[in-house]
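Give me the fold.
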Amino acid sequence: MSDAKKVTVIGLGPMGQSTVKSLVEAGYEVTVWNRSPGKADAMVELGARKASTVADALNAGAVTLISLTHYSAMYDVLGQAVSELTGKTIVNLSSDSPEKARAGAAWVTDRGAAFLSAGYMSQGDDISHPLSYLIVSGPQGLVTEYDGLLNTLSPVHYVGPDYGFSQVYYQAGLTLFHPLLLSFQQALAMVQRAGGDPDRYTGYAVKFMDSMKDFIVQFAAAAKATGGWEDVAALKMMDAGAQHIIDASEEVGVDATLSHAAQSMWRRALDASDERGEVITTYRLMRGD
């Protein structure tokens, strides 16, 4: 098999395992290494080869994909075989901050390897889902060179040469996801505790999410043009609306911490607007204007 079809995957959590499965199914010769060997054994059953050491893993092919909890784990792992990095390409799929991604890129390239920073925006660990994609940053030539490999994993969205930018967009996606997940759970619990039908509400929630697509586009345009969509009347309306959500939740014993946090943002924007004599939108407040 040609070197182009030989790939190493280090780190076999849910995303690392999904990566291995996709590559094996696509006909790649995959070598795996994991600090907990049991996970590597499971990948061998799928057709991967288990490396005995990090050095063995790095030397199995020209490209190594790293899927770890954060970038500091990369130093611990690759630090076991620094002398083997020269001439290799490292694609780090781990989540971390943009600055830590840039520092990780410098650490790798200073030791003679090429580097790309990437992150899956996926439906859970289903990287083959039609809506999943891979955000990648680093040298464009390197992305072009490994276009076939990267697109085998998920459709590539290249966001520029800055090693940190994949994490800018990746963490922005998670910034949206975390409160969305929590707010849906609060809403579902409120409906259920109140004696409503969770299945019926789930249908309403899906319909609501469809409507949010247009709002996001409109909001982004307003944020770019004027720094946000609210005026003082809108801020007061959102403050009052947040209180209604808090009351509806707490009346049936549902935790409304998230809604209290949202209300505090509307109130801070109102206070800042009053203090400065101009409308300070929540977007401007978050941006630090």
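The chain has a mean pLDDT of 96.
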